[in-house]
Design a protein that fits this description.
Pfam families: Polysacc_lyase_14 (PF21294). The chain is mainly beta. 8% of the residues lie in helices and 38% in strands.
């Protein structure tokens, strides 16, 4: 199996990358990768959900210890009864992340293809309940890019959001908000092993294509290739621990040249919104080794 730092960059070449993986291996130094600390300003973090924290701590040891295990991580806390961030008991963490200024500059001028990733560990004995959200990429036209989740229907042609989810028993999926059209619906619903459209919400893509474990680090890398305007040639790809588990083609991420990849919607919580989605006890998860690359 490839080492975790390689799993964060599962592509053969790219224009410029960044990582909080530490210490950076010599083989990363040979590439054009910026080493940055796990901190808000260097990672271009903004629109932080103030009711939640993302403290940098030393995470507990993994059940499968490795010399590559993160030494620092953001800790997400999910109190008993916590659900969606807008419910009475919020949990998880939430903000947007563009990366260092060099990466943001490339995104702002219209980078067409990017990879973003991170590592996550759910605490030992984690209870999955019905499911919950995990970070994924987002984009769109200007500030409209921030309005493509939570069941929103307005201006969906001007944004996209492809966060991940865990489901019962740790089954994974991509929870995709893309422009609403028959092309996207057909392409996403065709992704194996199972995909389904959620009433008034996004499309659950590739349910069970992988399964999360608790007490161990999982490496996630996600690739978005924007379509040429007027063509359905966009792509959405996902690697788990270096293995490609989802690759959807023939997608329309944008209908406007002004729609850009913005970075990561770095959000996690239990839910859904109803109480039967809520965490049954106080739980914690840790996020580390945040990385990304502009391919072109």
């Amino acid at each position: 199996m490839l080492p975790p730092w390689s799993q964060l960059f599962p592509i053969s070449s790219f224009q410029l990358g960044f990582t909080t993986f530490s210490p950076s291996p010599a083989s990363i130094a040979e590439l054009d990768v910026i080493s940055v600390p796990l901190a808000d300003s260097p990672l271009g973090i903004h629109k932080i959900m103030r009711s939640l924290t993302h403290e940098v701590i030393c995470p507990p040891p993994s059940l499968q210890p490795s010399s590559d295990d993160p030494q620092l991580a953001w800790e997400a806390k999910y109190p008993k009864g916590s659900c969606s961030p807008k419910t009475k008991i919020p949990g998880g963490l939430g903000f947007y992340l563009g990366g260092p200024k060099e990466i943001v500059s490339l995104l702002d001028v219209g980078a067409k293809e990017t990879v973003f990733g991170y590592r996550v560990m759910f605490e030992k004995g984690w209870e999955w309940v019905k499911g919950g959200k995990l970070p994924g990429m987002y984009g769109g036209v200007g500030d409209t890019a921030y309005r493509c989740s939570g069941g929103r229907q307005n201006d969906r042609c001007k944004c996209f959001d492809v966060r991940l989810m865990w489901r019962r028993d740790g089954k994974g999926e991509i929870y995709a908000y893309l422009p609403m059209n028959e092309t996207n619906t057909n392409a996403l619903l065709a992704v194996p092993p199972y995909s389904t459209a959620n009433s008034d919400y996004g499309i659950s893509v590739g349910i069970g294509a992988w399964t999360f474990g608790s007490g161990v680090w999982t490496t996630i890398a996600q690739r978005v290739k924007l379509n040429d305007v007027g063509r359905a040639d966009g792509e959405l790809q996902l690697w788990i621990n270096g293995e490609c588990v989802i690759h959807a083609k023939g997608l329309i991420f944008r209908e406007d040249e002004g729609s850009h990849i913005k970075g990561m919607h770095f959000q996690t919580f239990f839910g859904g919104h109803e109480s039967d989605w809520a965490s049954p006890k106080d739980q914690r998860a840790w996020f580390s080794d945040v990385s990304g690359a502009v391919v072109r």
